[in-house]
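Reviewer 2 asked us to include a model.

Predict the structure of this chain.
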Amino acid sequence: MGKSSGFTYLEILIVIMVTTLLALAGKVAYSNFNVRKQLEAETKKAISYFDLARTQTIAGEKPCDTFEGFFSVFATQPGDTIELEVLPAGCPSQTAYTFPEGYSLASGNFLINYEPFGTGVNGSTCLILLQNSTDACAKLSFDQSGNLKDTITSGANCSCP
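Predicted model (structure tokens):
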């Protein structure tokens, strides 16, 4: 018999199996990366609302005649969504954002008040945003002067002091 050139059936099966395993591993890694990037994007949107309230309080803006001098950021969880609102004290809600489904607040409702002329904050000083489909969460921490620090981590490491 002459020498056969080409691949055997077993060699082809091994190559297909290895390729399939690599593709599946890549898909899982990309999925986790994509979910983390979505959490980062939602965290940035939330931070923009806190920055808005702080900036307007420091500026001393009066959005209505009955304004009481400070802005609040209030987060609620009615049902399966989270609503984040900037509330000028004594006035109707100024702006609101509804997170997409799949997020929840670890500690229920959240309220932080930015004191007049940037003299600090009172109320809750830590907000944890959980991404329900993964083990990831975003922790937003406020110091007494109103400075914000955000951390994205696994759920096991996500807790408020």
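The first helix runs from residue 9 to 59. Strands lie at 71-76, 83-88, 95-98, 103-105, 110-114, 121-123, 126-131, 136-142, 148-154. We have added this to the supplementary material.
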